[in-house]
Description:
By secondary structure, the protein is mainly β. Helix content is 8%, strand content 33%.
Amino acid sequence: MTDRTKPEFDAPTGPAPAELVVRDIIEGDGAEAKPGDTVTVHYAGVEFESGEEFDSSWGRGETIQFPLRGLIQGWQDGIPGMKEGGRRELVIPPHLAYGPVGGGHFLSGKTLIFIIDLVKVG
Length: 122
């Protein structure tokens, strides 16, 4: 897979979703991620309401690898079924991200949008 450039985020329309929204931007054709797999990804995340970026592996200039079971629930639910080479958008409500307002994380209570490139499974 060639290195893609950092994705652009479209401004969301309408209210934030109450449940996880999964949208494939590019279908991958490599190995498929399964629950509990370790994945190598490039990703960027923005807040739904403000559109402000809060994190990006592109900003650090390198991919990141981690086990799905160690991530927020929205990633655990939203990445399985994705294939290497794919790019997927996840819109994650607070209960599948960092919990309600006052949860102790700076993103608590916020709906988050991630665009994720799945580079490698395993």
